[in-house]
Design a protein that fits this description.
The complex is a heterodimer of chains A (102) and B (363). With 102 residues, chain A is α+β, with helices and mostly antiparallel strands. Chain A has helices at 28-44, 61-65, 92-100; strands at 5-10, 17-23, 48-55, 70-71, 73-78, 83-86. A 5-stranded mixed beta sheet of chain A has the order 1-3-2-5-6, covered by helices on one side. In chain A, a hairpin with a 4-residue loop joins β5 (73-78) and β6 (83-86). The longest helix of chain A has 17 residues, at 28-44. The termini of chain A are far apart. Chain B has 363 residues and is an alpha+beta fold. Chain B contains 12 helices and 12 strands. In chain B, the strands form 3 sheets. Chain B has a 5-stranded antiparallel beta sheet with strand order 4-3-7-6-5, with helices on both faces. Chain B has a 5-stranded antiparallel beta sheet with strand order 9-8-12-11-10. Chain B has a two-stranded antiparallel ribbon with strand order 1-2. The termini of chain B are far apart. Classes of the chains: A alpha+beta (102), B alpha+beta (363).
């Protein structure tokens, strides 16, 4: 089971980008989404980011609170507005469009 | 109003595009689970379930393939899961072991100490310890047990995981090694012969007192590495020694050979040397002091010489005796003849008148 964890990379002050990834344990798309999210953040946001992984198999109650209906789902918490990307995040250009967009 | 409506429209568009993306992801198989809207559970989609099942199978394979016994104990140390290996280790079927307490499988011989340690060790959450378990046939199995706590999602202990390694063979080997070592140590200390262990450059790392006394070095000198075969072999013996060493390296050992060692004080000691290769970098040498034997040999030679002198004397005297006896015999015979001559001469004198001219010749 993937433990819920937070991965942060900060150069100066609070990172501008803050995202949360909802997964279902070690399910294949979830594992792929975690790897993809890390890679995109590392490559495209070298100035810093905050990435939180939430395993809904261990914390199903957090799904409803955040309005999640499927896993994996990536939520951009900051900058606002909230944006979501559903799926295993293998289309990095589409993910980047959402993360870097308005 | 129109601003509000346009914001509403924007929001609806966003939600619509999100729903569209979700459906697209679902169709393309990128979704693992769907959140059950009524409750708070996650419904895994079938491919995700398959994946989980495969992953579980992999874990099971690992658990069954390992050479260690793996047990899951509940909080009363009752066995709730064992792998095949653990059951085999103790000669049981897995179903026979399930439900037993680990304490039931403890060796009765190790009860006094074992009872405490096993329970106490299990009480203490983690770490590893040695224990003795009983095989179904009654024999003892030495094991090493590594324990860890099993925790649930809330961090509460639900039991223990124990990995049990059979160390019986290792223990037996250890004690056999210990015995062999002890046996060698006895020979080493017995003083029957000088025994040394030296490396390839000739530095003697170990030597018994007999050897040190033989060559006149102290234990301190041995410890500081000053005892070296190179210094102890006289020049005239070096060729023979290196030939013997070559034989040792070629065959693992050399036939015992005689040589001489130089003592620390420069005097020589005659020795009989047997060399065997201990491992690739050290050899074992057994040295017998031949001083006493050489001395005995010399003494024997001296005695032999002395004896030879006596023999000669004896032979001489015997010769003399024989000559004497011969002379005696000759004298006797001569005496007989002489006595006849004397007697007849005396008789002749009686018949002669006084003043007879022959009388003087006969007398």
């Amino acid at each position: 089971m993937a433990e819920s964890f937070i991965m942060t990379k900060v150069k100066n002050g609070t990172p501008r980008l803050s995202i949360r990834l909802y997964v279902a344990g070690n399910a294949p798309n979830s594992l792929r989404a975690i790897a993809n999210a890390k890679a995109i953040c590392d490559e495209r946001f070298p100035s810093g980011f905050k990435l939180e992984i939430v395993d809904l198999l261990q914390h199903p109650e957090r799904a409803l609170a955040d309005g999640i209906i499927v896993t994996p789902t990536l939520v951009r918490l900051a900058p606002l507005p909230l944006r979501k990307v559903v799926g295993n995040l293998s289309d990095s250009s589409q993910v980047l469009l959402v993360l870097a967009g308005p | 109003v129109s601003a509000f409506l346009s914001r509403q429209a924007e929001e609806l568009t966003r939600q619509l595009s999100e729903a569209e993306a979700t459906i697209l992801a679902l169709v393309s198989g990128q979704i693992d689970a769907v959140v059950d809207a009524s409750g708070q559970t996650l419904m895994l989609l079938s491919n995700a379930q398959d994946a989980l099942r495969t992953s579980e199978q992999q874990y099971r394979q690992i658990v069954e393939a390992t050479s260690d016994g793996i047990l899951k104990l509940d909080d009363a140390a009752r066995i709730v899961f064992v792998n095949q290996r653990f059951a085999e280790m103790l000669g049981y079927e897995t179903r026979e072991v399930i439900g037993k307490s680990l304490f039931d499988l403890k060796s009765p011989a190790a009860k006094v100490i074992g009872a405490e340690t096993l329970e106490q060790r299990l009480e203490g959450a983690t770490g590893d310890f040695d224990a003795t378990l009983r095989h179904k046939s009654g024999s003892n199995i030495s094991v090493n047990v590594a324990c860890s706590l099993l925790l649930d999602a809330n961090g509460q202990a639900t039991g223990k995981l124990a990995v049990v390694r059979d160390v019986t063979a290792r223990k037996r080997l250890e004690s056999a090694q210990l015995e062999a070592e002890l046996r060698f140590r006895r020979i080493f200390d017995s003083g029957i012969a000088g025994i040394t262990v030296a490396n390839l450059s000739g530095v003697v790392s170990e030597a018994n007192d007999t050897f040190l006394a033989m060559v006149g070095y102290t234990r301190e000198e041995l410890r500081s590495g000053r005892v070296n075969w190179a210094h102890m072999t006289p020049v005239d013996w070096q060729a023979a020694s290196s030939a013997a060493l070559q034989e040792v390296h070629a065959n693992g050992g050399a036939r015992p050979f005689e040589k001489e060692y130089l003592r620390k004080d420069g005097t020589r000691v005659p020795v009989l040397v047997g060399v065997a290769l201990l491992d690739e970098s050290r050899h074992l040498t057994i040295v017998a002091d031949l001083t006493a034997r050489k001395l005995a040999e010399e003494r024997r030679q001296a005695t032999e010489e002395a004896n030879r002198g006596l023999e000669d004397q004896l032979r001489q005297s015997q010769k003399m005796k024989a000559v004497g006896r011969l002379a005696g015999g000759v004298a006797h015979d001569f005496n007989n003849l002489l006595s006849v001559v004397v007697s007849y001469s005396e008789l002749a004198i009686l018949d002669l008148a006084k003043g007879d001219p022959i009388r003087e010749d006969i007398e």
